[in-house]
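Q: Got a minute? One more chain.
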Amino acid sequence: MKEREYYSIGEVSKIKDVTIKALRYYHKVGILIPKYIDEETGYRYYSIDQFVHIDIIKGCRTLGTSILELQDIFKDPNTEKLLKFLEIKKKEAEEKIKLMNEIISNINILSESIKISKEIVDNDEIVIKHFNKRCIVFAPFKSSKELEELIYYSKLDKIIKENNMEITLERGIIYDISSRGEIKSQFAFVGLKDEVEEEQNIRVLPEGDYLTLVYNKENQLKCRENLMKYIEKNNINTNELIEVELYHDLFNTDNYSCQIQIYIDKNHIHPNYF
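A: Always. Here it is, folded:
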């Protein structure tokens, strides 16, 4: 049986699962020219070897290939040229996958942070919690005004971008505790994903047990006072207080909550404490 020489645009549309509109458009932009066009009717006809070209076009389109790129490919059809192009697209796809995985990871981290924040936000008791070693990037912070830390976080963003750092959602303020118990803000900080060595604007918070206490806008002073009394009563030697933002209600800045963290240095503590 003699093999058919040409297929109509309607037949090609059904066989290759591509719309007639698309085939006409590919003809218009010059990436798939019909083998034969009836001069009287204007009907388009395609040869069976062009089915391979359609497969290439469809495959490239799923990779996000633009019409301009396809025009370049079919202007001078060459298998080696196509392979190089596909390798480029492969790398682009791998980068997109990496980016999407990072986005998914950040969504999971934010979701987990919100859940944990909601679980602990109503607990007004002092709790000892163990934290792993954490690396942070920091910048000087000298202010006592509400929400002004947002300005300092913006300054931190510049440091992070300039040094191509990957960060976590953990952020807050580090305060200095004087020998008289006075508390003054020192640094704004953001957590880093990777473990790095200490250097300018980078610091390591040690692994260990921390005194933790959650407070909100209304009971902030009372909670800090209770914590300082607890420290004094138990002879805990510290000169620093870490304040970490909680994410239980991201849209209500009038009712923010934070968790105070104070590192327990077991080398400088009363032996009867534990």
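A: Residues 270-274 have pLDDT under 50 and may be disordered.
Q: Perfect, thanks.
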